[in-house]
Amino acid sequence: MPARIFQHAGLFAEELFIDAVDYEYSLRVRALGYLIAECTTATLLHSPGTPTSHSLLGLKSFHSANYSPIRRYYQERNKIWVARRYFATFPRFCLRLFSFTITDAIKVVLVEQDKRAKLSAFLRGVIDGCMNRMGKYSGN
């Protein structure tokens, strides 16, 4: 990415810490009129969480990332932070983020370990995102 885009759009949103930093920045530069090109042949060597494969009633296969509770917290809090700022301009993108939220919550309930801690962190992330609380996750 050319340095002039950073000069125009600014740096990444530090308050997002770990999740949705890329979403927020891409929406910000798109709102400024820049286009984002997609490279369909790029390979990203990144394994989010500890992915596992499952099948539901032997019919449909799906993957679950098995993120930690703290990661679940930041994912949900930061998605809401992004949606609060960009929903008016990019409603379809923001609605898609929330469809991931629903799908991930169902996967936690169905197949992941430590359900209670993850769902608690998930809910706290939603509440903190709605309340615009951007502090560090305490786990309590």
Gross geometry: globular
What's the order of the H and E elements? Answer: HHEEHHH
The residue ranges in which pLDDT falls below 50 over 5 or more consecutive positions are none
Number of strands: 2
If helices are DSSP runs of H or I spanning 4 or more residues, what is the number of helices? 5
Question: Using only CA atoms, what is the Rg?
Answer: 17 Å
Oligomer: single chain
> What level of helicity do the residues show?
40-55%
- Secondary structural class: mainly alpha
Explained architecture:
The structure is a single chain. With 140 residues, the chain is mainly alpha-helical. Helix content is 52%, strand content 7%. The chain has helices at residues 3-9, 21-31, 69-86, 91-111, 115-130; strands spanning 52-56, 60-64. It has a two-stranded antiparallel ribbon with strand order 1-2. Helix 3 (69-86) runs antiparallel to helix 4 (91-111) and helix 3 (69-86) runs parallel beside helix 5. The model has no long low-confidence stretch (mean pLDDT 92).
